[in-house]
């Protein structure tokens, strides 16, 4: 039996969370090694596992995978969540890049001061409504299908529900003007693998707290 993928990252969301989501959505079990000390990170560097000196790091299929976008693309292709042809992959890539932009803004805001953080969150919610959510609402309206691309469950759908839930943590009513996205969220949440990942006790991580921020700052020294 093939070894489970092993994820090396901090005990929190960060750039690894989308990788956890994609593996979970594909029904793939994985193990995690949490970085809690600077020495762990330095050892990964010394052993030559961090190609550009960065995590996430995923060990699977006899390889040490780095760079978030490359890892996600590999997983999507491996587990048949990347469309049926180049045109579908292009659309998936465009939608994924949009949601990654939104999620990156939220993740980065967590590292700001309390005053800046609240101000940033308000701006992010506004931008989510005017730039991102309305785009996906229109996509669903225009093609009238259950999923974003080719009417088949894909990486783009996984990334979108992750982004929606992150924005809802900042504003619970953010989908009030987006009925198709609200239905999309309900539909996706009922897929067995996603439903399992959303249950308490799964490997899904909670929103970052100050302890997480402090650990990341200490290990990465910034």
Task: Give me the secondary-structure topology.
Blueprint lengths: L5 E4 L7 H9 L5 E4 L3 H9 L10 E4 L2 E4 L1 H11 L7 H24 L4 H30 L11 H16 L8 H11 L2 H6 L12 H11 L2
Parallel strand pairs: 1-2
Antiparallel strand pairs: 1-3, 3-4
What does this structure look like?
By secondary structure, the protein is an alpha+beta fold. 57% of the residues lie in helices and 7% in strands. Strands 2-1-3-4 form a four-stranded mixed sheet, with helices on one face. α1 packs parallel to α3, α1 (17-25) packs across α6 and α4 runs parallel beside α6 (155-170). The chain starts with 5 loop residues before the first strand and ends with a helix.
Low-confidence parts lasting 5 or more residues at pLDDT below 50? Answer: none
Global structural class: alpha+beta
How many distinct helices? 9
**Approximate shape:** globular
Span from first to last CA? 41 Å
- Listing every helix as H and every strand as E from the N terminus to the C terminus, the arrangement reads EHEHEEHHHHHHH
Tell me which oligomeric state these chains represent: single chain
Radius of gyration: 18 Å
* β-strand number: 4
Q: What is the helix fraction of residues, given as a range?
A: 55-70%
Query: How are the strands of the largest sheet arranged?
Result: 2-1-3-4
Average predicted confidence as pLDDT: 93
């Amino acid at each position: 039996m093939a070894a489970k993928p092993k994820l090396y990252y901090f005990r929190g969301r960060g750039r690894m969370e989308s990788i956890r989501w994609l593996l979970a959505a594909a029904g793939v079990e994985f193990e995690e090694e949490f970085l809690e000390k600077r020495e762990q990170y330095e050892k990964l560097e010394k052993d030559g596992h961090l190609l550009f000196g960065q995590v996430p790091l995923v060990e699977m299929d006899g390889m040490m995978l780095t760079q978030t976008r490359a890892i996600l693309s590999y997983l999507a292709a491996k587990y048949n969540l990347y469309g049926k042809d180049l045109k579908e992959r292009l659309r998936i890539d465009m939608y994924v890049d949009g949601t990654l932009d939104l999620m990156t803004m939220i993740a980065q805001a967590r590292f700001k001061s309390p005053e800046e953080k609240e101000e940033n969150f308000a701006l992010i919610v506004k931008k989510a409504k005017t730039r991102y959510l309305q785009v996906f609402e229109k996509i669903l309206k225009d093609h009238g299908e259950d999923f974003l691309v080719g009417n088949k469950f894909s990486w783009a759908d996984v990334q979108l529900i992750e982004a929606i839930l992150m924005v809802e943590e900042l504003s619970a009513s953010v989908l009030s003007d987006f009925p198709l996205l609200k239905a999309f969220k309900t539909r996706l949440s009922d897929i067995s693998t996603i439903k399992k990942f959303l249950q308490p006790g799964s490997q899904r991580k909670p929103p970052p707290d100050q302890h997480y921020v402090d650990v990341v700052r200490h290990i990465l020294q910034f």
